From TrEMBL:
Residues 1-31 are annotated as: Disordered. Belongs to the chloride channel (TC 2.A.49) family. Pfam families: CBS, Voltage_CLC. Keywords: CBS domain, Chloride, Ion transport, Membrane, Repeat, Transmembrane, Transmembrane helix, Transport. One of its GO terms (cellular component) is lysosomal membrane. The chain crosses the membrane at residues 120-141, 169-190, 220-238, 281-304, 316-338, 368-392, 404-427, 482-502, 508-530, 542-566, 572-593. It is found in: Membrane. PANTHER family: CHLORIDE CHANNEL PROTEIN CLC FAMILY MEMBER, H(+)_CL(-) EXCHANGE TRANSPORTER 7. Residues 735-793 form the CBS domain. It comes from Scophthalmus maximus (Turbot). The lineage of its organism: Eukaryota, Metazoa, Chordata, Craniata, Vertebrata. This is Chloride channel protein. The keyword Thylakoid does not apply. SMART domains: CBS (SM00116).
Length: 799
């Protein structure tokens, strides 16, 4: 291991394998003092609050607390490549014990067909409910924002004539701050995991990481109400990311046929109460959220594949597409009813880009290099955006970790956004004629002549979605270059400051708006170059290309974003230019820094597994990677031993190899059992002695495990008497008798591929005679990555 740079130590009481990392510094008492400061480092997703359980104490986006707030934490310590080992993995591999196999054998062909039909029904319900939520958000934002902008508009018009526009500025700032304050309070104080877009958390969930509270009903309610307040409050945010998160929460709830938050069990879809099935439905929910946001069913499927899902199959693709179609149809139908045009289902989605259908905006072959150059600009600006937001996030980790401070920061950003917007509008002299074909929702005249409106107000005095639409479709000459340049500069920094606040908000629409502004500016400048007396560079066309370049430079999506943009604009003509632009933006941006979602996943200290192992890790073997101090259980084990093992807070194991000893030979592996299974067995008193004494004792079934899923009770809530501790428990029927194993000499890439492709939680390492020598978990693999000094290792430590 001499060629590996050891970066940093991290403290925890939890490990998937139940063991500390090999060579952990804190296992040596002499080294404890030298690592004390690193032990105090806070995980981006951990809130250490008195009285909370370990799961509830995990941090959600935008919130942080440290063990010792009095001690100074340098920026180098905060930004170190660490990951929080408090996170647990999900069990994406089926537990093939005797109960599972017996249930499968009893199930008839019609039973399997009914299960498949149930999956389609669940996907349909997911799409329908996600579409309803999107419709509610859209109507609420439209109505509330309309009221706000109308009140401010009338106030501005009033004081423009009599003087005293400072009152209008104050009104605008107070309204924004008050609305944003409500959204920030419910997020910061009631459900911090609802902050942000939610896309990083859903990516982690689909990657196999258990993010506490990420798919709960309370999270959904706070998410929906929070995003309405954020958009209506005038922040530089969008509602597409929260829609993806909302769809995932809907999917996780509907697929289980019950609500653990409301304590209601509808006794349906019980077969789907396991991580494997829930993962597939969450993928469908995320796709349905994209489809509802952009009116892009195919784009939703590709987004779920490219950005979210770690595991895929053909039938799942069709079910996800079905959910996306239902979501789009539901949204369009109810919006058409709301707009009193029930026969019109052509609305493209929650975010309406309008249609690029005119031949006048078709591109020429010689424009392709210009588009590629714009993609490079988008990659550079996206990298700058991500770097600035990264350092801003570090600042928030250090200083803005209390809920009250988070609410105050959100209110400050809302007030500053209103002040900057008002100032830009006030000093702008870009007046445009207000013709009969104008599409501005709230045109402001301000100091313009009669029959004219302030062009800067079209960009600032509007919801971000409408501003994007105006930049795409307003006629040439609607904006002058200075207006677009100033708007791009100011909105860029406002959006960068806003992302990461303790509010529900997405980054798609702000990115598109920034890109559309500087893209339209490029179009205006290019159009000034004469070409046979005709305008060859349509500003709307370049606004579309700039929007794609900026969004691609920030989030680094390629295929799915291409399809989303094509579906949202209704013109396949731009498929090739958009793809080239997005690829260029990703290549250029990746040269400097990762995508925004990947940055925040790393800042959340999540042990995220990418598609492949580090390129230079072939010489590492399973023996060097594994956790070697594994707690094994006998096939027939004493109840007291099991209780003591589960109650051991210094390790808090989650997986236990089961061994059998025959004729005094060394114990050999015969299975694997999980903590959650053992807790259910203890709860139901499945002891050998009790089974013999009770002839009518009910046999434990898979339904008992599914009823306890996903919130298995803690071991402290299970009462075991002293007499029961002397009983024996036979694990044969409940353990996974065929766990995945690898020899000690297996290379790290092969271990990684097996672990990643199968969605494993534990991988047992055995010797030549099938004796357990170690256990590989997600954290053992995630601590190796390529850095500036080659292959780097993150050490794990125990507190």
């Amino acid at each position: 291991m001499a060629n590996i740079t050891k970066k940093v130590s991290w403290s925890s009481r939890t490990d998937e394998s139940g063991t500390p990392g090999e060579g952990t510094p804190l296992l040596n008492g002499s080294e404890r003092a030298s690592h004390s400061r690193q032990v105090r480092l806070a995980c981006w997703l951990t809130v250490v609050l008195t009285g909370l359980s370990e799961e509830d104490s995990l941090f959600q986006i935008g919130r942080l607390s440290t063990v010792d707030l009095e001690e100074e934490i340098t920026s180098d310590e905060v930004k170190s490549d660490i990951f929080c080992v408090l996170f647990q993995s999900l069990d994406y591999d089926n537990i093939e014990n005797q109960l599972f196999l017996e249930e499968e054998r009893r199930m008839s062909y019609m039973g399997f067909r009914c299960l498949e039909i149930s999956r389609w029904v669940v996907c349909g319900l997911i799409g329908f409910l996600t579409g309803l939520i999107a419709c509610f958000i859209d109507i609420a934002v439209e109505e509330l924002a309309g009221i706000k902008y109308q009140v401010v508009k009338e106030n501005i018009e009033k004081f423009t004539e009599v003087g005293g526009l400072s009152i209008s500025l104050l009104l605008w700032a107070v309204l924004n701050s008050a609305i944003v304050m409500m959204g920030a309070i419910i997020v910061a104080f009631f459900e911090p995991i609802a902050a942000g877009s939610g896309i990083p958390q859903i990516k982690c969930y689909l990657n196999g990481i258990k993010i506490p509270r990420v798919v709960r009903l309370k999270t959904l309610v706070v998410k929906v109400c929070g995003v309405i307040c954020s958009v209506v409050g005038g922040l530089a945010v969008g509602k597409e990311g929260p829609m993806i998160h909302s769809g995932a929460v809907v999917a996780a709830g509907v697929s289980q046929g019950r609500s653990t938050s409301l304590k209601r069990d509808f006794k349906i879809f019980e077969y789907f109460r396991r991580d494997t099935e829930k993962r597939d439905f969450v993928s469908a929910g995320a796709a349905a959220g994209v489809s509802a946001a952009f009116g892009a069913p195919v784009g939703g499927v590709l987004f779920s594949l490219e950005e979210g899902a770690s595991f895929w199959n053909q039938m799942l693709t069709w079910r996800i597409f079905f959910a996306s179609m239902i979501s789009t149809f539901t949204l369009n139908f109810f919006l058409s009813v709301y707009h009193k045009n029930p026969g019109d289902l052509s609305n493209p989605g929650l975010i309406n880009f309008g249609r690029f259908q005119s031949d006048s905006v078709a591109y020429n072959l010689y424009e392709i290099p210009l588009f590629i150059a714009m993609g490079a600009i988008g990659g550079l600006l996206g990298a700058l955006f991500n770097i600035l937001n990264y350092w801003l996030t570090i600042f928030r980790i250090r200083y803005v970790h209390r809920p009250c401070l988070q609410v105050m920061e959100a209110m400050l950003v809302a007030a500053v956004t209103a002040t900057v917007s008002f100032t830009m509008i006030y000093f702008s002299n870009d007046c445009q004629p207000l013709g009969p074909e104008h599409s501005e929702e709230y045109p402001l005249q301000l100091f313009c002549a009669d029959g004219e409106y302030n062009s800067m107000a079209t960009a600032f005095f509007n919801t971000p979605e409408r501003s994007v639409r105006s930049l795409f479709h307003n006629q040439p000459g609607s904006y002058n270059p200075l207006t677009l340049g100033l708007f791009t500069l100011t909105y860029f920094f406002l959006a960068c400051w806003t992302y990461g606040l303790a509010v529900s908000a997405g980054v798609f629409i702000p990115s598109l708006l920034i890109g559309a502004a500087w893209g339209r500016l490029c179009g205006i400048l290019l159009a000034s170059i004469p070409s046979n007396g005709s305008i060859w560079a349509d500003p709307g066309k370049y606004a579309l290309i700039g929007a794609a370049a900026q969004l691609g430079g920030i989030v680094r999506m390629t295929l799915s974003l291409t399809v989303i943009m094509v579906e949202a604009t209704g013109n396949v003509t731009y498929g090739l230019p958009i793809m080239l632009v997005l690829m260029t933006a990703k290549i250029v941006g990746d040269y400097f820094v990762e995508g925004l979602y990947d940055i925040h996943i790393k800042l959340q200290s999540v042990p995220f597994l990418h598609w492949d192992a580090p390129a230079t890790s072939h010489w590492l073997t399973a023996r060097e990677v594994m956790s070697s101090q594994v707690t094994c259980l006998n096939r027939i084990e004493k109840v007291g031993t099991i209780v003591d093992t589960l109650s051991n807070t210094s390790t808090n194991h989650n997986g236990f190899p089961v061994v059998v000893t025959e004729n005094e030979h060394p114990a050999k592996l015969c299975g694997l059992i999980l903590r959650s299974q053992l807790i259910v067995l203890l709860k139901h008193k499945v002891f050998v002695e009790l089974a013999r004494s009770r002839l009518t004792h009910r046999k434990l079934q898979l339904k008992d495990f599914r009823d306890a899923y996903p919130r298995f009770p803690p071991i402290q809530s299970i009462h075991v008497s002293q007499d029961e501790r002397e009983c024996m428990m036979d694990l044969t029927e409940f353990m996974n008798a065929t766990p995945y194993t690898v020899p000690q000499e297996t290379s790290l890439p092969r271990v990684f591929k097996l672990f990643r492709a199968l969605g494993l939680r534990h991988l047992v390492v055995v010797d030549d005679v099938n004796r357990v020598v170690g256990l590989v978990t997600r954290k053992d693999l995630a601590r190796y990555h390529l850095g500036k000094h080659g292959l780097e290792e993150l050490q794990l430590a125990q507190t």
